[in-house]
Design brief:
The protein is of the alpha+beta class. The chain contains 15 helices and 16 strands. It has three domains: 291 residues, no CATH class; 115 residues, no CATH class; 64 residues, Arc Repressor Mutant, subunit A. The strands form four sheets. Strands 2-6-7-10-1-11-12-13-14 form a nine-stranded mixed sheet. A three-stranded antiparallel sheet has the order 5-4-15, with no helix packed on it. Strands 3-16 form a two-stranded antiparallel sheet. The longest helix has 20 residues. The protein binds zinc ion. Zinc ion binds next to loops.
Amino acid sequence: MEYEAVIGLEVHAQIHTRAKMYCACPVVADTGDVPPNTRVCPVCLALPGTLPVVNRRAVELGMMTGLALGCTINPVNVFARKSYFYPDLPKGYQISQYELPLAVNGALEIETEAGPQRIGITRAHLEEDTAKLYHQDDGSALVDFNRAGVPLLEIVSEPDMRTVEEVQAYATTLREVLIYLGINAGDMEKGEMRFEANVSIRPKGATTLGTRTEIKNLNSFRALAASVAYEIERQKAVLVKGETVIQQTLGWDEVAGNTYLQRSKEYAHDYRYFPEPDIPPLEITPEWIEALRAHVPELPLAKKRRLMAEYGIRPYDAALLVGDPRVADYFEAAAGIARAQGVTGQDVANWVGGELFRILNAAGTPIDACKTTPERLATLIALVQQGTVSVTAAKTALGAMCETGEAPEDVVQRLGLTQISDANALTALIEATLNAHPAQVQQYLAGKTNILGWLVGQVMQASKGKANPQDTRRLLQQALEQRNAGL
Ligand SMILES: [Zn+2]
């Protein structure tokens, strides 16, 4: 029998507001720079007699996410207590949302090999992060309450995914949407986004759902993909043996590469949800919703399609550029200017995704701190196109521009990078190169003509990258033919 997987995802995204969800303590990125337990107050430490106050900005960012995902925003929101005991939860309950969450009934469009697909969004609700536990080698644990009360948005999908590829596309696309909305920076290593996957198996074509398992605490794309793939195969093997899948909560062992039992059946009423008595129902007016809708930016997939249509760039490059909205903005600024100088969008995409990325990555510089403005990159590419500098020389120039912030013309001047297209100068370089490598010349003349490329390389090197490669190749061939005739 053929089986298919049915997969749903729950995504927890930290909302990087200035203050925490229910108190005024600052939200700090989990970089290890801030000393533990220094961004805390009586509210997030759950001291008796304190009262939570809802962070308006967190609500607004949650609403914008809901709107971006095509959800309906509930006009009345109710916060609820989700009770459970754990050392990282000082109140003994989490203030979350249950029956009337912020947003419901949306969808996220994803792209896969099979084409675009819509994955339903069941709900998105607000809650608070827990403190962070640091387990020690001696079996004890330390707790840092800086993270306690950081706003979280939980986004729950419908069980609409069937393959690991769809799960990856969904998680990646959602991450980009959250970055675009300014929810957080999408840094998985800092725990800004965490996943839980619900996986079940059923005979292909069946309409009822099989028994599902839930894989908790997946903190990387790799763990998400590997654990879902593992769980699909494990459940298939169980069914093939004629046994039944048991509803369980599982963990993922990254090192062993398998899921393991955390606890069996878990029902919603275990949490004893009830409305939070310290927070009145939150009323959301249509005017408030519309005001925020106006601030929802163009989303990554729409931007990708627009860049392809407007600048004629390949899907791969468009996907690369929209991964970070700042990169997409940089590209558009450069491509707009370059177009006026006869440079194609694809050329600009090649430079941004190629040499510029390489330089910025090597220096650890984000693109919005890049010293080369989009205008100057466009001018540099135009210089290549006009034949003023070779590609190799332009790469050298770009490196210098990113270091000093100079204009391309100044760098080319200062470093003497102007391309040698002058035939006399080139011929002199070629003659010197041929004289220096008589063995290779003999090989060429004996019919091993593919050595020409190597000889072009030698001339380019001798010119410090300033020779025009096309002219070099042509003149080199001529010079060799002359020697051939002379033999
Ligand atoms: Zn606090």
